[in-house]
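MODEL INPUT / OUTPUT PAIR
PAIR INDEX: 1
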Amino acid sequence: MASGPITRKVGSEVGSPASLGSESGSEERLRVANISVKQNGKHNISIRSNSENGERFEYSGWVYHLGVNSIGHEYCHFRFLFIRGKYVEMYKRDPHENPGLKPIHRGVIGNAFMVEESGRRKVNHGDLYVLRFYNRLDDTRKGEIACASAGDARKWMEAFDQAKQQVEYELSRNRSVRNKLNMEDEINLEERRPKVRRYAHGLKKLIRIGQGPEMLLRKTSNLGSHGRLDAYFDADGGDVVEAHEWKCVRTINGVRIFEEVAHAKSGKGVLVKAVGVVDASADTVFEVVLSTERQTRYEWDTLIGDLEFVDSINGHCDVVYGTFDPRYLTRWKSKRDFVFSRQWFRGQDGTYTILQFPSVHKKWPSRSGYIRTKINPSTWEISSLSTSSSSKTARCLVTQTLEINPKGWLKWRNNHCQKFEKTVPYALLSQVAGLKEYIAATPTLISASSTTLVQTTVSDDSGSFSEFEDAETADEFYDAIAADSSSSSDDDSDNEIGIDKVKKIKLKNVSWAIAGLALNKSSDPDSSNQLNTKVPPINVDSSQFQGSMGKAKDETDKNCWSSPAGSGFMIRGKTYLKDSIKVKGGEPLLTLIAVDWFKVENCVTNVALHPKSIVQSEAGKKLPFIFVINLEVPARPNYSLVIYFAADRPINKSSLLGKFVDGTDMFRDSRFKLIPSIIEGYWMVKRAVGTKACLLGKAVTCKYLRQDNFLEIDVDIGSSSVARSVIGLVLGYVTSIVVDLAIVIEAKEEAELPEYVLGTVRLNRFQLDSAVPLKV
């Protein structure tokens, strides 16, 4: 048997409105899929799977349940987690192998339910990847589970995301469901337990993520994911029109070596990168790069194979110590040691980024016989590549970037000198080639999959999905798992469950368009139709509004703002759902009228209601609509960056923008998109921030205030440990940074395309100490 989320499809087609009310209608739309199966790694067989187009999926699999019991002891237990629809259950054993087994915890995924990747954590002398659950409106209601690999944690995140989409879809179609969901906290769980056995009816497909308890114990990284749970992939590498350009100067061992042209001409240093395609999943490569296990690193890392863990800063940052003997580097004879910190995070597109900085740590002073040196700052970027349907191997693009002294590099690039090949920077650039060859020579890293697709038969007497849901209990899920009172003396025989070997089947890509179905089809995809064209426009003059941060006079001005053109950002084109092609954005729909930079004791919300707010000014009250974004920046002290955009006409209620402004918080979370771009600044900051669009509602906690003529979005950057790490890095270089931000409402249906740029802002080298105190 395998483990991890299992997905089941239930009921009629979700993706088509025509079939939403018909169970039989979906029977006519069957897809036949050939699925490759490996039985115990010995032989291949073929399974033909009939699946309905757009069916619901259900997930289950083995995880660790982390927490503190009633007597204050920390525990870590094997648990079988089950997600179906908006309901979640936790078992001590696999319910598929133990019919009639009752769950120990059950709950519902409500509209305030949030999941956060807490990163890697040491638990019982092993590394686990932790997921934290909490209520967006009440951070005290929370719980934690953990996975043995980053890949399994990613798949669980996607499973919970699809469950939240299911909630949004049901709420949008049935108001009685909304009322029921609000009341479900008060349901008595004990009275409904006998009915949960009905989950076995109406089952179509199960997808398991993970390798079972026996693999959790071993903590191996057999991740061979053959695709994410998304329905499509972006055709380009980012959502920003990059000003800089890279030039390939060498190809070594199948790895391309690039230099950034603009950086090379500056004479201050050369930014170079090694790029290679690795035949393994991004999850697998990420764990290999992050591993400090000596024997593994000896297989591919010619320079820093000897690494030791020093300290963990948080789940996304640690400090390591390493040594190397540069006898093959002719310039040095004595041994060298170093200390550097590593920060890592996974983007919403699945790309892993690892930042490596030279560091100092009091626990590791220089050792006798070694000379302390600084390893070049570098970054790793590991992104999945789409594979053809006939391919059985996942692939990813691995990029390592570092800044080096131009002297030896330029001579080597021009074939005038080979001494560069005996330097530390060259050894670092060779890591990509070593990694590529190591994984190619390790079949288990290429072929093993942590996801299993299990086919089941549908019984004729199965109940409807609504009946099945009514049989469920509905406490909020984070409350259920946080209430575990298991002690260290609890019967943990379930941690040693005997698990039979199961067929390993490639995960089939899953497509859900639930959030898009929440909207009626709009015939106005154009940005010009987002505002009411029947009302004559007014003149929006930003000079009438004075924020605490001034408007830029020219490009050299500091501590100021401006509004760049939308053409610097890539957004979804008219045919995006068919070809994934993005196009340059047009002029922003809304006008940037002011920016406030506040210093606050505690992060503040509802800034638009403050008596001295621009929204409450006489000029502000006359505007048809104001879009307010309050970026709550965690620091010492805390800051708030408040950005005000104005419309020259009222919002068209039937447009995508109108449905966003007056929609549910969950719908807003699934559509509010921010595109960042570091125009000028330290290259490591550029790599950390990236150029990909981010759905803020899925990355951090967002609160919404809709009143009168405005909508305010309070973005709590501190609610995510990843976001806190990135913003901490940005604040360290903020005085030399020019950053552009674009606001987009994500389009998910063809009728909503093409996308448009809602608003843009450029922040020019602003000073932290220029923040104005805000008295609440």
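PAIR INDEX: 2
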Amino acid sequence: MVSETEDVEKTSSATHKEDIEKTLSATHIAADQAVINSLKITSADTVYNDEAIKVLAQEHGDDAWSPEEEKRLLRKLDWQLLPILCFTYGLQYYDKAMLSQAAIFGIRTDLDLNVGNRYSFSSAILYIGFLFGSYPCSLLAQKYPIERVAAGLIFVWGICLMATAACTNHQGLWAQRFLLGLLEGGVSPIFMIVVGGWYRKQEQALRMGAWFCCTGYAGVVSPLINYGLGQIKGSLSPWKYMYLVAGAITIIWAVVVYFFLPPDPIRARGFTPRERYIAVARMQENNTGVRNTHWKGEQVMETLLDVRFWLHFFIALLMMVGNGPYSTFTPIIVQNFGLNPLNTLLLTIPAGFITGCIELAAAFAAYKFKNKRCIIMLCCQVPTVVSCILQWQLPRSNKGGLLFAAYIIASLGGTYAVLLGVVMANSAGYTKRTLNAAGVFIGYCVGNLIGPLLFKPQDAPAYAPAFIGVLATALATMALIAIYWYLAVRDNDIRDEAGIPEGFDHAYEDDLTDRKNPQFRYTT
């Protein structure tokens, strides 16, 4: 039940909204921006509106700001936010991909994973945990302070990671991997919400890519760390030291996230009232809102009936089938060349470096070139297609060609890095944006679940059926991206032809979704 105070606030907000609507109807077009800017927000209904209006209602000085002020704010934000997002995501990939490196240091023998598909399922079950964890974590992040939710998840998953060293059979490892996925499942959706609340649409692509490319660069650092840990001659198997060290680092990092992650412009510490105002006011351009803690059933239904939601989901799903050979089987494929475990680790480093560079380059291109994101995603799929054909057709004696194919297969990461920004840019309404963030991540999980299971022990060492499957899903991903591109362009044209120009007058009113706000335009 809504409190009396909220009733008063809603009545005042409704009156304020009616005044704006009268101005709009009097002109028969979108209200003049000067008129909108002259209206003063005197109440803050945060049940139906975005919480950003609380900042706009406070004393902040001149409504206008200079480009220099905005640049200083953006620079300050980048320095405070991006290092935390980048290190956290790199750490997450380091933790969850540890299995592929532990595989060449005895974990398959110690836990009896060489039987049937036990090893493949050990990788896949992590993403079943992701599936169960992503939506609850997203809901927690909307209802409670994001930085506390993120820090709590990271702290517990660090403990869970260390517990891997106590596993004595494959059943114990499966349970641990499921729980790890359950805890890590909220990181991507939470980070997407954070970036979507701080940055303009055109700025989001580069920032999303900045933290996502750390999945590749973590593949450069982790083999070096595990190269050293793999040489320990102690009472434990080398793979156990790997998990203990990674878990301890994760637990320490959770404390950093708790105290230093800037969650959104409304609650972030260390920003002046003037900086908060600029951070919120400039986000009107997105037409997506900043934060609203009230779960809205009508936005849930709209999301589930929106074809874009399902395109986000299936693009992520089909694309990430190709991540199976990269994250789970690359070290094993390289070791099949006849190398020892330590040299195998060193030869996997270029794969991580190339993947990280492709992801970062794709994000930078999306930032630099407006409305070229679908083209960039299509381009990033091409090396994955080429890799699958090479892995399928080349003879096993052509080690150079096979190694090159292993290095470029994860270029699909560039597609996903850009897709994250597209999802945030094209989803308005806080509940709808939260659902889209979780939806694309669920697609990511299902794809990663399917990928490793395509690699059957009887198909080793070529795994031809698996690479045929990855090739098919990569081509299907390209087809869905083309459909998404067409729909975005079509809907923008329809709105243009209706005579309603793009505008930002109602960015924080009624927490409008992209479908209900005729001034909204889709990023392509």
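PAIR 2 NOTE: The mean pLDDT is 81.
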